[in-house]
Amino acid sequence: MKATETKLKGCFILEPNVFEDDRGYFFESYNELKLEQILGYKPNFVQDNQSKSTFGVVRGLHMQAGDFSQAKLVRVLEGAVLDVVVDARVDSETFGESFSIELTADNNKQLFIPKGFLHGFSVLSAEAVFFYKCDDFYNKESERGINPLDKSLNIDWRIAEDQMILSEKDREAPEFTQIFNR
Question: Which are the contacts of 48, defined by CB distance < 8 A and separation ≥ 6?
Fold first, then answer.
């Protein structure tokens, strides 16, 4: 497995070794020992989540705060998404900065997102199946959201705004500076 740390400390792109032949392919999608070697600690994943969405759907930007903060390991099982993270760790050198990567069923890339990050994605293909592991359980009271169209974050979701499909909750979410400031 190849691991590349992004410009946001602790956030890693993971690329598995894929073995292909005339029968198809095989790869190890998760290995606790290898991930621990990359991160320097062992996340205790306790919950898996999966969603299916159509072209133009933008989900996010979401996170869990406080005691229920979650690290995530995300990937795409079908289709293609633009995966986006924003560093919301107030004490971080990259606070407020974002990173995006195209995750597809064909490239098999995954993104490890540490605790303290907002996360979202836009669907670039006709449909996409998105899968992620979390190292803590969902807690409604700890949920935080930022409007994905917040101009101060300047995120290019690679979907025309008139083609975006957002939930009412995401469309009405506050801007980054209304929730997070130093």
Answer: 131, 132, 133, 134
Q: Among 30, 119, 132, 138, which one carries the catalytic annotation?
A: 132
Q: Is residue 132 annotated as a catalytic residue, yes or no?
A: yes
The single residue of 25, 30, 41, 62 carrying the catalytic annotation is 62
Alpha-carbon gap, residue 149 to 161, rounded angstroms: 9
Q: Determine the average pLDDT of the residues in 27-44.
A: 95
Amino acid making up residue 121: F
Domains of the chain: residue spans and CATH = 45-179 (2.60.120.10)
Q: Is 30 a catalytic residue?
A: no
Nearest to 146 by CA among 113, 122, 112, 170: 170
Give pLDDT, residue 182: 62
Tokens of 91: 């004490």
Q: Classify strands 12-15 and 110-113 as parallel, antiparallel or unpaired.
A: antiparallel
d(CA 139, CA 20): 40
Which uninterrupted H or E stretch holds 35? helix 32-39
d(CA 70, CA 138): 8
